[in-house]
Amino acid sequence: xxxxxxxxxxxxxxxxxxxxxxxxxxxxxxxxxxxxxxxxxxxxxxxxxxxxxxxxxxxxxxxxxxxxxxxxxxxxxxxxxxxxxxxxxxxxxxxxxxxxxxxxxxxxxxxxxxxxxxxxxxxxxxxxxxxxxxxxxxxxxxxxxxxxxxxxxxxxxxxxxxxxxxxxxxxxxxxxxxxxxxxxxxxxxxxxxxxxxxxxxxxxxxxxxxxxxxxxxxxxxxxxxxxxxxxxxxxxxxxxxxxxxxxxxxxxxxxxxxxxxxxxx
Amino acid sequence: xxxxxxxxxxxxxxxxxxxxxxxxxxxxxxxxxxxxxxxxxxxxxxxxxxxxxxxxxxxxxxxxxxxxxxxxxxxxxxxxxxxxxxxxxxxxxxxxxxxxxxxxxxxxxxxxxxxxxxxxxxxxxxxxxxxxxxxxxxxxxxxxxxxxxxxxxxxxxxxxxxxxxxxxxxxxxxxxxxxxxxxxxxxxxxxxxxxxxxxxxxxxxxxxxxxxxxxxxxxxxxxxxxxxxxxxxxxxxxxxxxxxxxxxxxxxxxxxxxxxxxxxxxxxxxxxxxxxxxxxxxxxxxxxxxxxxxxxxxxxxxxxxxxxxxxxx
Lengths: 265, 313
Known about the structure:
The complex is a heterodimer of chains A (about 260) and B (about 325).
Chain A: H1 2-17, H2 19-43, H3 49-71, H4 73-82, H5 85-92, H6 98-127, H7 136-160, H8 164-181, H9 193-201, H10 204-222, H11 234-264
Helix pairs in contact in A: 1-6, 2-3, 2-6, 3-6, 3-7, 3-8, 3-10, 4-6, 4-7, 4-8, 6-7, 7-8, 7-10, 7-11, 9-10, 10-11
Chain B: E1 2-13, E2 16-27, E3 31-35, H1 42-50, E4 57-62, E5 65-66, E6 78-81, H2 93-103, H3 108-121, H4 137-149, E7 155-159, H5 167-182, E8 186-190, H6 194-200, E9 203-208, E10 211-216, H7 218-223, E11 229-235, H8 240-247, E12 252-258, E13 261-266, H9 273-282, E14 286-292, H10 296-304
Parallel strand pairs in B: 3-8, 3-9, 6-7, 7-8
Antiparallel strand pairs in B: 1-2, 1-4, 4-5, 9-10, 11-13, 11-14, 12-13
Helix pairs in contact in B: 2-3, 2-4, 3-4, 4-5
């Protein structure tokens, strides 16, 4: 534990001292979220305060979840630089198992992504108190799951991408792809069953976001703000949580298998 | 006790054999110069010694114990000065030293004392709180060395520690290395600079194609290789007569003339110097002369067919 604490402390110090950490992984997501919310408020004028509030809540939830997938790129700096080449040789020369450095990098990146989500959510919540958000416990679980998936994605990149540039490219395609398929880029796929599948269960972001959207609507219904009756989304949310859990286990297994294969070659 | 004992070591990467029945020993307190052209296997040898990779076969022992990737305990006593600068630019010199010292289990007073000692040793005490990105190349290399020594290893491997730095910093590093050697630390030093190796190392091993092809002190290595005798002569007056007489000396292979500058090349051990002087005096007089002695570069070139430094190729 002492070794983890020592390595972790220095990862944190180095990450937090880089201006790009603050700009790209906190400033930019927060700025984009606020701009997006204001734009949506403008679009939803005339729909009523509750509908606007739900729209804001859904949009912020989507942004927080999406940025979780991008936040693992904090990890790339270590996985593609300090844990490769001569720098890695120097670290691995120490009497500390190699995987402790890797675990520390992933662990710190995970903590950072949680901090990012918490900060964005807190600021938006204070700025838009009228927004409808899902249950805090469900939002917390989804952020945790999505951030773990993000770190697994981040850990997978050095095993499949040649260099950091390739990793950034693949990551961008995956993240924007998920946002697109989830309907988060203002693209509507229609009302068919396939379109519904795309926007609710085609990828981890869709799974998490659709569950949270359903919960937000349910909270509104329970508080009497909705004029229509909606079905209890518990089964839907539970199913999505199970699918996300399976994806997590599969992705973890892939990382471990590819990682062990890389180590032996 | 041999600090390092490598016997019949083979390391392959696919079809390529990086270490081919390598034998290498280093005694305690010795400063071994490990030379070799690019691709000779020095880096693979170092990585195997450090436990970063396992050999395919053979014996690799450090401090009398079998070295391997899984043996973490041996690493506590080895320091590696990497060829590239591998300090963290986001941490100050002090923080870098504390980080690397902490990786080796140092803490508390011992860590503080070692860090302070290293900063003094490499002459960076007044820059302890500055970050490496504000340092010159030479200062970064000094910090690089300090980070490898902070845990006071018994065996230090220095992989081209002075490449690309100014002469002042190089001298500082060489002086520090000498002091380190005087303290009894065993050092394996690789370099492409002959003068460094000659200044620091008590013994030299030359590697090529994955094995040691020559081993001994500098004098032993130089005497093991026969060379041509070369005399540079500046004559008071150049003349065809002088050139003809020089060419007729027994053992002379070639006489190259450039104005009044003569290069007389004879077979090794010809002992023609006196005869050359006598002829030159008779033909107008001598302004100056010098005899070219074989050096480590010549030894290296003879044994490997390659230059010690690529820029001389």
